[in-house]
Design goal:
6 strands; Rhomboid-like fold; two-stranded antiparallel sheet; mainly alpha; 282 residues
């Protein structure tokens, strides 16, 4: 039945035959209840909402506390289990620590070293896991679990490549054959990611800068700490955070892939041989 004898009732273009008296505020087409979407002013149809989302993509960002940092807890769990295995069997450390001289024949060591710690120093494990817990419970809910894991792994890779790159220069490096273990390279990447994120959100970064400065000084004055891995992880983490804050997910994953590829290329190009073997714990 029509409002008048000559005027047909308006129908939804997506559901022919469905009478729709409500019109989209954007395109002015009739919109049935199934196609209506709330808008800041009035109602928009589902097609206009999709077009708007496509034209103005937004990063998926949630507030800290909305998502349990299960990836952070998982990494802490893996590192703890690996440390216990190192205590029980010294060959675990031998198979998975990183040394630049082993990078070509056993490239997995670039990442596996980030899950090992000094079996003779519980504080080495506890300090890194505490730092991971502090940064993880803030970053993981903001970035999301998959992107946070990618940040951690790429930063860990950056730490190993940074150590390798600087070890190629005896005046600043610790030796091409010197082994390293520890999550500190990845943790420094998380530190810098917090700084980049807070700068983006216009939040205070003083406390994090103090933490970074203290750790940087300790890295230089305490023997046996591979500061080169800290530096490599920090630079990588800052670069990763910069791309992860982009609104377009394609840019985010493309940027992370480009950073990882660059690290692989630099690591491969730097492979060579060097002097005395030893141990440094990061």
């Amino acid at each position: 039945m029509s409002l008048s004898g000559n005027t047909p009732e308006p129908t939804c273009p997506r559901h022919p035959g469905q009478v729709a008296y409500v019109r989209c505020q954007r395109c002015d087409r009739p919109t049935c209840p199934a196609c209506q979407r709330p808008a800041p002013v009035g109602i928009q149809c589902v097609d206009c909402v999709k077009q708007e989302a496509k034209a103005n993509p937004r990063a998926v960002v949630v507030r800290p506390g909305q998502e349990r940092p299960v990836v952070s807890f998982g990494i802490i769990g893996v590192c703890t289990v690996m440390w216990l295995l190192q205590l029980m069997d010294s060959s675990v450390t031998d198979r998975f620590f990183f040394a630049p001289a082993l990078g070509e024949s056993e490239p997995w060591r670039f990442l596996t070293a980030a899950f090992l710690h000094d079996p003779g120093s519980p504080m080495h494990l506890l300090f890194n896991m505490y730092a991971l817990w502090l940064t993880g419970q803030y970053l993981e809910p903001v970035l999301g679990r998959v992107r946070f894991l990618a940040l951690y792994l790429v930063s860990a890779l950056g730490g190993s490549v940074g150590y390798e790159l600087l070890a190629a220069y005896p005046s600043v490096g610790s030796g091409w054959l010197q082994g390293t273990v520890g999550a500190s390279g990845a943790v420094f990447g998380l530190f810098l990611a917090v700084v980049v994120l807070n700068l983006k959100l216009k939040r205070d970064i003083t406390s994090m800068l103090v933490v970074i400065a203290i750790n940087a000084v300790l890295s230089l004055v305490i023997a046996g700490i591979a500061w080169q891995a800290h530096l490599g992880g920090a630079v990588t983490g800052a670069a990763c955070a910069a791309v992860l804050l982009h609104n377009d997910k394609r840019v985010q994953w493309g940027g992370l892939s480009a950073i990882a590829l660059l690290l692989v290329v630099v690591g491969w190009a730097t492979l060579g041989a060097g002097p005395q073997i030893g141990h440094a714990f990061v």
